[in-house]
Amino acid sequence: MTTKTPSKTGRRVRLWVDRTALFVAAVLIWQGLSGTVINTFWISSPVLVAERLWQLAVSGALVWHASATVWQALLGLLLGMVVGVVVGLALHVLPRLAEAADPYIMGLYSLPRIALAPLFILYFGIGLLSKVMMAFSFVVFIFLLNTMQGLREVDQDQIDMMRSMRASRLYIARKLQLPSMLPWLFSAARISVGLALIGSVLGELLGANRGLGWYIEHASGRLDTTGLFAGLAALMVVAVLLNQVVNILERWAMPVR
Amino acid sequence: MVDHATAAATSPAPAAPVRAKMVQASKIYTDPAGAPKRVLDRIDLSLAEREFLSIVGPSGCGKSTVLRLLSGLTPVSEGRVVVGGEEITGPPKGVGFMFQRDTLLPWATVSQNISIALELNGTPPAERKGRIAELLQLLGLSQFGDYLPAHISGGMRQRAALGRLLAYGPELYLMDEPFGALDAMTKMTMGRELLRIWSGHEKSVVFVTHDIEEAVSLSDRVIVMEGPPGRIRSEYHIDLPRPRDLREVRKMPEFRDYCDRIWSDIGYSG
Ligand SMILES: Nc1ncnc2c1ncn2[C@@H]1O[C@H](COP(=O)(O)OP(=O)(O)O)[C@@H](O)[C@H]1O
Ligand SMILES: [Mg+2]
């Protein structure tokens, strides 16, 4: 039954062929429906979207808008990570505070973040900062909760093993707790990339003069479905690329497992 | 034979100096309902230098707790624990702990896992590599230094854990059912290696097991516990010749005699 195991590269090639085929099929169906079954006004068409993306790329508008969206998302992600991990560590060291704070953390976590938008715009204006804070508000709880969970799941026998050899707290943190937590942090990062983008775009939809979210909103206001789909396509590409970055970092930080 | 194998606390005190002792040591935990629960009840126990002591008893009687108190990982509730002449309040110097689970770091290779013990006992970095190679050789793991724990067998993992313990170089070995999860053959091999290392270096061992034959075949003395609350029920001085061959010793009538008496002491009449 194992006589014909396809080689690893063989499988990879096949996977990418399959993926390309799916993409091409979807685009062809879209193109086929457009202007025949469904009016081009509603769903534009792949050719029109590709043209628009090309124009935007050439004029520099694509980079101008995408960079704003990405930059806001990354800043929010970074800030959320730092604050989430630090607060998570603090709550781990102070279990009494953690227990007391638990319902409030869960309450804030469950709060629809969009309800915070008016407050953020009031505080931070319609510039960069309100979007960063929007992304931050999505991301911070993910890191906070994963940090606490990750620390709780560190094997107690392994902690005891190190304690019995008189390891310092710092040594245990460095050699045991941090590496044990890495999968939790990366899983937080993977979820957070998408959420940070949501925060960034949400902030743009609600008030901005730049960014892919703004571009989509703007296109929709002018009933420009081609622009709308071009913006969405660009967002998708950005999300895939950012996820890829996380994957690469993960493979670099945790080569085994 | 039966005559000098006295099963009583009246046996003569060991002549060698004391490596560790527990004096009227009790441990009280809080049970899930919040009520105090006496897990160990006024344990008196003394371990001589170079002694190999085993503790047997039904599961839940407090054997692991005895080791945790001796290791300083858990503080006593009442009484005292003295290791190397000093009353302890935390993990003392020169005490190594081995768990039933191997507790190897899964992301570190066998060599890196052993290296942790060398870092923690202050071995200079320049000497670590040589020492690791020596230990791998000793435990028959030379080919596997660069393997991750997930990629070697359970027996090899436990040998690697033993290697880490040896690397730390304790004066007192505390071993909590270290071979309990291994098959009979691997268990025998590990026991043989442990005895060889022990007789070569003359360290003290407290060895917890639920395998009475294993306890008798390895030890100078076997303590039988009962509980909860955990108490020492009886002790047996095992007067079998050393060095011991673990297979040969099991064929001796005295060996069978010790085992039978411990079995019936625990309350099993076959
Ligand atoms: N951290 C703890 N908190 C509460 N009870 C405990 C704790 N550790 C052990 N116990 C209880 O102490 C008793 C003895 O446990 P243990 O020493 O592990 O027994 P053994 O090793 O002989 O099986 C058990 O009843 C166990 O439930
Ligand atoms: Mg136990």
UniProtKB/TrEMBL annotation, chain A:
InterPro entries: MetI-like, MetI-like_sf
Entry-linked CDD domains: TM_PBP2 (cd06261)
Keyword set, alphabetical order: Cell membrane, Membrane, Transmembrane, Transmembrane helix, Transport
Keyword Cell division belongs to the record: no
Gene Ontology cellular component list: plasma membrane
Domain ABC transmembrane type-1: 66-250
Transmembrane regions listed in the UniProt entry: 21-43, 70-94, 106-126, 132-151, 184-208, 228-249
Species: Acuticoccus mangrovi
Domain of life: Bacteria
UniProt record similarity statement: Belongs to the binding-protein-dependent transport system permease family.
Membrane protein topology class: Multi-pass membrane protein
Compartments it resides in: Cell membrane
Chief place where the protein resides: membrane
Record's protein name: ABC transporter permease
BP GO annotations: transmembrane transport
Record-linked Pfam families: BPD_transp_1 (PF00528)
Automatic annotation (TrEMBL), chain B:
Residue span, ABC transporter domain: 23-252
Cited SUPFAM superfamilies: P-loop containing nucleoside triphosphate hydrolases (SSF52540)
Entry keyword set: ATP-binding, Nucleotide-binding, Transport
Keyword Acetylation tagged: no
Membrane-traversing stretches: none
Pfam family, one: ABC_tran
Family of the protein in this entry: Belongs to the ABC transporter superfamily.
PANTHER family noted in UniProt: ALIPHATIC SULFONATES IMPORT ATP-BINDING PROTEIN SSUB, TAURINE IMPORT ATP-BINDING PROTEIN-RELATED
Protein name per its UniProtKB record: ABC transporter ATP-binding protein
Organism annotation: Acuticoccus mangrovi
